[in-house]
Amino acid sequence: MVHDDIVTYSEGVKREADEILKDTGLLDTLATFGIPHVVGSYAMDLMYHPDIDVMVETSNPHSASVDALGVLVAGGCFEKIEYGDFVKFPRTHRPSGYILVLKTKRNDVRWEIEVWFLTNTKREENDVSHICALLTPESRRTILEFKQQMHERNISKQEISSADIYHAVLENNVTDFEKFITMSHEIL
Q1: According to the CATH classification, is domain 6-120 in 2.60.40?
Q2: Of residues 145, 149, 143, 144, the one with CA closest to residue 173
Q3: Residue 159: what pLDDT?
Q4: What is the per-residue pLDDT across 44-67, written as a single tens digit (0 to 9) for each?
């Protein structure tokens, strides 16, 4: 789906994300288990996909994640909830922590919310601050256009991440999507 004004489209996705967070009371619920921080594309005003990333800083991530799972299941606001243990089963490019993946549908669109439980969220918060400091209206539009191109070509976020896009556009000044794809394949 091509969006004529990608920035307006992105702003609409963020408004829907705001509605989901408000309607589910998710951040208030998570605040009972630690300090929630909304990060990722939501925090940077770079939303294209219907997903939200939240980090919950807590002294006991395992206990907090299990307790939050119970409360969220009982609350009935999400169609599906998945649990992951990336402490016992670590993965490359994923934090060492516990994750809840919450799935819901809004206006016939499937949304996914990743909620990470970690002892420290400073790295993720610093990443957001760093990217926001580098963003210009032009680079924001380029990043959103790259995300749109990735979607149109069915290139998954597992193949090429949003972080790869941010790095290419903001630090290497890449503005051509074909050049970005070529660079990405050379690196991978």
Answers
A1: no
A2: 143
A3: 86
A4: 999 999 999 999 999 999 999 999
